[in-house]
Write a structure and sequence with these properties.
- With 383 residues, the chain is of the alpha/beta class.
- The protein is 41% helix and 15% strand.
- It has two domains: 206 residues, Glycogen Phosphorylase B (Rossmann fold), CATH 3.40.50; 162 residues, Rossmann fold (3-Layer(aba) Sandwich).
- The strands form two sheets. It has a seven-stranded parallel beta sheet, sandwiched between helices. Strands 10-9-8-11-12-13 form a six-stranded parallel beta sheet, sandwiched between helices.
């Protein structure tokens, strides 16, 4: 029992350096900001390094976190310039990591993981890497695939979010531990309120306005039954490169008065409390934060049963609906059915709240702390 308790506690002398491309929007960025804030609150010295400048941050960080923005996120015009820029990134990243004097380094996202392992190659630092998406659905360029295959096995541990992704990585990682740690979900904010009768006629979706989030499919689905449900509207929270084409799609459907691209919201509690149903239309996912947040607010949820993510959280017809991946007509049918069944919405919403206990901050942080302690111990034994 004592050994288990020690494995869950972070040593007070442990210095952590966290690395990610940037801290502007995105699910990986949200997760890392929450982890960083938790560790800093517990008294752990934390340095957070990004390739991007800190001026573009959209997530609030604890005052005690040392923030380092390298400002090396420049686009390249050709292969030779790309090689030069990546060498510069590795050099500056190595210098920043060593200056932070970490006991352990944690990196998020695939290319960043590779760069971090390259930067730490001669340092003997334990580097924990974490994949935040499903690599089967997000292929990378051949050169990065080669570098990934070469460097990933040298990590102290690989953290993924689902068992299926863990299975995918087993042939690559040799003896490197692969650990499944889902995202944490925070309980609804103090200002959150129960849904009222006047705030149950909004379908809500959240995420980057990007192809993988499938908002074009969601708009198509809503259009299939919109004329039969005139009291319901659709609100999409988020920003991204597809804002203009999505707005054109909305305008072309004749539903611009009922479908709103509401922009990015750093505190979506209010929108979640004013919604009646949450819809996740993603073509693929890692472990969707937005879905967890909606369920923590007691919202009935509908999600495409894509290969990774939703099915690890939603049990069909118990705490939400799963519909056939990419089937717009099935999504539309599920949405309309739930909109017309208040009793079912209440039942699913009540069951959905249980995610707060399963994925609460304490449980998830303990899992991370165990990985960190083991990575540090293993690296010390190797020296």
């Amino acid at each position: 029992m004592l050994q288990q308790q020690e494995a869950q506690e972070m040593p007070v002398h442990c210095r952590l350096t966290l690395v990610i491309p940037g801290m502007s929007l995105g699910g990986a960025e949200r997760v890392l900001s929450r982890l960083a804030n938790c560790w800093a609150t517990a008294g752990v010295p934390v340095t957070l390094i990004t390739l991007d400048t800190a001026d573009n941050d959209t997530y609030q960080l604890h005052a005690k976190i040392k923030r380092v923005g390298l400002d090396v996120m420049h686009d390249s015009s050709g292969i030779w310039e790309a090689i030069r820029l990546n060498r510069e990134r590795v050099r500056k990243l190595r210098a920043a990591i060593l200056e932070s004097s970490p006991d352990c380094v944690i990196s998020f996202t695939d290319i960043m993981n590779t760069l971090t392992l390259m930067a730490c190659k001669q340092s003997h630092l334990p580097v924990i890497i974490s994949e935040r998406a499903d690599p089967r659905q997000q292929p990378i360029k051949k050169v990065w695939k080669f570098l990934k295959q070469r460097h990933y096995p040298h990590a102290a541990a690989l953290v993924v979010q689902t068992k299926s992704v863990a299975e995918y990585f087993k042939p690559l990682m040799n003896d490197c531990p692969i650990v499944v740690i889902p995202n944490m979900v925070m309980p609804p904010g103090a200002g959150s309120t129960e849904m009222s009768e006047s705030s149950t006629k909004t379908l809500l979706a959240m995420g980057r306005l990007a192809h993988e989030k499938g908002f074009d499919l969601l708009i198509q689905a809503f259009a299939q039954f919109a004329d039969r449900t005139p009291e319901w509207n659709l609100k999409i929270l988020g920003e991204g490169d597809l804002r203009q084409p999505l707005q054109q799609q909305i305008d072309g459907s004749g539903l611009s008065a009922r479908i709103q691209l509401a922009g990015w919201d750093s505190s979506p509690d209010r929108a979640l409390c004013q919604a009646g149903i949450f819809v996740l239309s993603s073509r693929h996912e890692g472990f969707p934060n937005a879905l967890l947040e909606a369920m923590s607010h007691g919202l009935p949820v509908i999600a495409f049963d894509c290969e990774s993510g939703p099915r690890a959280i939603v049990v069909h017809e118990q705490n939400g609906y799963l519909v056939e991946d990419g089937n717009v007509s099935a999504l539309a049918a599920a949405m309309e059915q739930l909109m017309n069944d208040a009793a079912c919405r209440n039942k699913l919403g009540t069951a959905a709240r249980q995610v707060v206990e399963k994925y609460d901050q304490t449980n998830i942080l303990q899992k991370w702390n165990q990985v960190i302690r083991q990575a540090m111990k293993s690296r010390q034994q190797d020296l």
